[in-house]
Design brief:
alpha+beta; Alpha-Beta Plaits; four-stranded antiparallel β-sheet; about 30% helix; ribosomal protein
Length: about 140
């Protein structure tokens, strides 16, 4: 059977348990139509780059499946009809990657860092040398008349 990866975004006002129940629900839709979910991941609530249906955030979920095309079509149809699902993306892949998705790997890296982990080991300000004088930038000034 063909291999697929699915990502969907659910409304932000759902609880985590409700979002995970959606993952299970759509997994059973695939199973009822002759497919199976290889793995699923709940990525959590993330901020979107633009509003969808007046929502700025959404619950992201990821499924890897081994299903016939008819099962995937039925699942997508039900997702598009479901009032809690805002967006759906399905991609056919040659093989599933081993281990967690890139999104989950990023989460693991973030949790392992300290409070300022993205800044690296920068030296203190005085060790980096003097700041350059930027001079007058020609902006608005009250003294000019």
């Amino acid at each position: 059977m063909p291999l697929y990866e699915h990502v969907f975004i659910a409304r932000q006002d759902l609880s985590n348990a409700q979002a995970e129940a959606l993952i299970e629900h759509f997994g059973t839709v695939l199973a009822d139509n002759g497919g199976k979910v290889v793995t699923n991941e709940y990525w959590g609530v993330k901020t979107m780059s633009y509003k969808i249906n007046k929502n700025r955030k959404g619950h992201y979920a990821f499924l890897r499946s081994d299903s016939p095309a008819a099962a995937v079509t039925e699942m997508e149809r039900l997702m598009r009809l479901h009032e809690d699902v805002m967006r759906v993306l399905t991609i056919k892949v040659e093989k599933h990657e081993d281990g967690p998705s890139v999104q989950m790997q990023k989460r693991d890296e973030r949790e392992g860092r300290g409070d300022r982990g993205d800044r690296g080991d920068r030296p203190p300000r005085e060790d980096r040398g003097p700041r350059e004088d930027r001079g007058d930038r020609g902006g608005f000034s009250r003294d000019r008349r």
